[in-house]
Every structure is written in structure tokens, then in C-alpha cells.
Amino acid sequence: MAEPQHTLDCDVLIVGGGINGAGIARDAAGRGLSVVLCEKDDLAAHTSSASTKLIHGGLRYLEYYEFNLVRKALIEREVLLRAAPHIMWPLRFVMPHSKGQRPALLIRAGLWLYDTLARRELLPRSAAINLRCHSAGKPLKPEFRCGFAYSDGWVDDARLVVLNAMDACEKGATILTQARVDTLTRKGAGWEAIIDKPTCGGIRVNARYVVNAAGPWTAQMLHVATPKEGAGHLRLVKGSHIVVKRMFDHDNAYIFQNRDGRIVFAIPYERDFTLIGTTDIDYQGNADNVAIDASEIAYLCQLASEYFVNPVTPADVVWTYSGVRPLLDDGADAKAVTRDYRLEVDDDGAPILSIFGGKITTYRKLAEDAVELIAKALDNRHGNWTANACLPGGDLFGAEPQNKSVLGFDEWVRKVQNHYAWLPPLLVVRYTRAYGTRIHTLLRERATIADMGSEIAPGLYEVEVEYLRKYEWARTAHDILWRRSKLGLHVSPEAVAALQDWLTAHPMQFR
């Protein structure tokens, strides 16, 4: 590689643009630390956009006595719902019950514990339900006569990553996408990283502290930085999902139990679809090329078909996605591997912090714990702040997170629709869900449909594409259609090609 053309000096270099890396960048930048984050692909390009998209305590983890993890996640569930009510919202789950499954008394006890492990203000309690007279019973086979309902939260996982990166950037962090760390070397009291970013000719970063938040590549990154062993704690578990046409008309989600002890969710998705997943299997391949296989599709279809009146077949699948979760290796079966995290510091010289494990619900707490370690090492005394701060766009009724933003979201949307009465109501709904109060930035100086620019693809105008490139690091049609939005499910291949042609015809200097 040629001599880098640019040099950056910072307090903290973060390797990895998934949810943990972006969360740590946000927290650290908010404490006044200078931060550089490097991601080899797009933000949330891998594991962090391939979750089941739930903000939840993890009901099934109670079976494995993970009480501390569940309690921590339940606390975070409400913190996050308040901080980003536009990309997160409450969701009611229905668990059908029949003979041969976990005893009803055990489920009742588990749900009671789930309700009481942490303070709960936003979500209703669990309850037993009669599926013969409940709307959720209609799509199910008649043998499912009773069940249970409880509440958790839904999240647009990829947008959660982007919002953390945006907040970090607004607080002074430098966010570099399409930027691969080629070398990472201790130099005196700090680190020198050589970063391959083709659009700017390469970058040298001098940092006092390094955070290894590379997800499935944590072990490889640690090996680049130091010859010491330390990544044996990591276990790669693949989770795959399928998407089919919408299978039910109500807004509840389902949680299905399988004989092998695994559970699968069926969730309303993008208005017209149902999301079914996930699988939990050990993974040994290249994390860059992870994809669902035929046996996983068959497994998910078979399990869903055991519950729904209308069977699900592989031919019904309109889209799939897979991700590799970098979990702590505690020796358990893949389905039971802990979702807790471990932070390990190698301070034999300039310090490097490696992140092992974690789940999307506890990312903010993980970031807070990580930055506490960093701040102590760098003598930063700012203190914790993210528990009482909205993410970009989440400040619907003021700068501080509040219950009203979650419970009054629909009311707020109606006011926004009245303000932008010249826009189609469904488009305003999509904008408010994606951007929250940043809709006003998106639509600044726009007063008619003509002001939106050309409609590059159905429902996608030039003004939105320009916003995503300027503020959210989107570069390709795939970035826009599958991570910044899920419009890819709704548009034709011709529309995808038209968007990519437009991007090519309108080049810009990317950050």
C-alpha cells in the first residue's frame, strides 16, 4: 500500500461500524473524547442489520437462569424506547400453547418474572388469552385454543446503528465507511493504524486507545494488533430469517415453541410482509459470505406451518437474510449460548479494548461500560450521559427522553401530516418512522411535490437520496434500499437499476 495521504490524531480509534462500535463512538464523543470510527463496509452491513429486530429482555433466557442479563435488557428496553420512539415501538407477542409444550404453569411463572424483574412503565403486563375469541387465533390451527400474550419492543436495527453514528458525528467524531484497517501497531504510548480508504488515498490514524468492535472479525482484528491469544472466548452463531407475504391482518407478533427447545418469531414486517426467524446454528465459514441455506429455510417453513392454518413453503419466501452473531463461548448449545458481553483490555503497552458477545438491546449499556474503562485510562471525567439523551430524531416533545414520545407517537405523526399536507399521508408515515424530527431537515425548503425532485423509484425522491448521502453515509442502491430503508422489498429490479444509475450520474465526495 502507498504512503497514506492523510493523517488523523485522536483519543480513541474504534474498529467496527456495527451497533457496538457506533454506540461506543457516540458515548465517547459525547464525553469530549476525539473519536475516529472505521468500518470496512457500510454501517450495519453485517450482523447489526441481520437481527430479529427486537428490543427485548429475552424471555427464553430465563430458562438458562440468565436473570442478570434479562433484567439488564428489560431496563434497557424502556430506556431505548424513550430515546428513539420513531425507530422503535411496543409490540405485543402471542404464544400459542398446546399439549406437549412447556407446562402452562411454568410459562405463567416465567411471564410473571419477566413482568417484575425490572420497572416497567411503557408496556402492559402479560396475560393468558383465549385464542378462540382473540384476533390472533384466527390464522392459527384450531388445536391452539389458549395461549399467552406479553409485550416487548420492535426496532429498525440498521437505522439504530446509523443514528448512533450520526450522533457521534454531530458531537465531533469522524466516521469512516469503506475504510479497512490494514495494520495496527503500537507506537510508543499510542497506536498507529494504516487505513485503506480508496476514495481518499489512504489514512494514517494515531490514537491513544483502540477499541476492537469488529464483531465476527474481532479475533482477526486482535491478531492484527497483537500476537497474544485472547479471542478463544468468541463463538460464531448464524441466525437466519425468511420473509413471506403477510400472513395475518392484526398487529400482534407470534412466538412459537419447537420440540428442539428453540423458538421462532413470526412478526408483522414492512406493512405487506411477515418476518419469520431465527435459526441458531454454529458457523465456521467466512462471515463476509454468510447466507441462509436450504435446510434453514425448510426448518423455518416447517415450524411456522405447524402453527398456521395456511402452510408456509419455500416457494412463499420473497427475501432472506442471515447474520453471524459473535457470542461468548460458554460451552452451551448454540440456542443457549449467552447473549451477555465481556470487555477485555490488553494494556501491555498502549491499551486495546476488545468486545466479546452482546445483543442489540444492551448495546447502550455495553457502550457505557466500555467508555467508562476508556475514560478512566485517558483521565476523562465527563461521566455517563446516554441514558438521558435522545437519539437523532427522537426528540418529539423535547430534548430529554420521555414516555409521551412513545405513547403519543401517533398523535405526533398526525400533526406532522397536517404540517406537510401536500405530501401523501403514507409517505409522511414512512418519513416520520425513519427520521423522526429530522423529517424537518429532510424537507427543509420543500413545499410541493415538485420540490422533492424526480421520483427515482416508487416513493423514493431525489431529496431523500440526497439526505441519505449527505447525513447517513449511504453510497449505493443497496445501502439505501436495504439498510437505510426496506424499500427493496417493494420495488422492482428496474427501479433498483434506476437508482444505481442516478447515483452514478450524480457523484459526490463521501465522508
CATH homologous superfamily assignment of the domain at 6-43 and 159-233 and 339-388: FAD/NAD(P)-binding domain
- Annotation, overall tally of beta strands: 20
What's the architecture of the domain at 6-43 and 159-233 and 339-388, going by CATH?
3-Layer(bba) Sandwich
Q: Mean pLDDT, nearest integer?
A: 94
Structural class from helices and strands?
alpha+beta
Question: What is the rounded distance between the termini?
Answer: 21 Å
Low-confidence stretches: none
Rg from alpha-carbon coordinates: 23 Å
Main pleated-sheet profile: 10 strands, mixed
Give helix % range: 25-40%
CATH fold-type name of the domain at 6-43 and 159-233 and 339-388: FAD/NAD(P)-binding domain
Question: How large a portion of the residues is in β-strands, by DSSP E?
Answer: 25-35%
Summarize the structure in words:
A hairpin with a 5-residue loop joins strand 12 (253-257) and strand 13. The protein contains 14 helices and 20 strands. Among the domains are: 6-43 and 159-233 and 339-388, FAD/NAD(P)-binding domain; 235-328, D-Amino Acid Oxidase, subunit A, domain 2 (D-Amino Acid Oxidase, Chain A, domain 2, 2-Layer Sandwich). The strands form three sheets. Strands 3, 4, 5, 6, 11, 12, 13, 14, 15 and 16 form a ten-stranded mixed sheet that branches. Strands 1, 2, 7, 8, 9, 10, 17 and 18 form an eight-stranded mixed sheet that branches. The protein is of the alpha+beta class and 511 residues long. It has helices at residues 19-30, 67-83, 104-116, 157-170, 218-225, 294-305, 363-377, 403-407, 409-419, 425-435, 439-442, 462-471, 477-484, 493-505, and strands at residues 6-15, 35-38, 54-55, 88-97, 127-130, 146-155, 174-176, 180-187, 190-196, 203-212, 234-245, 253-257, 263-269, 273-277, 281-282, 317-328, 341-346, 352-357, 455-457, 460-461.
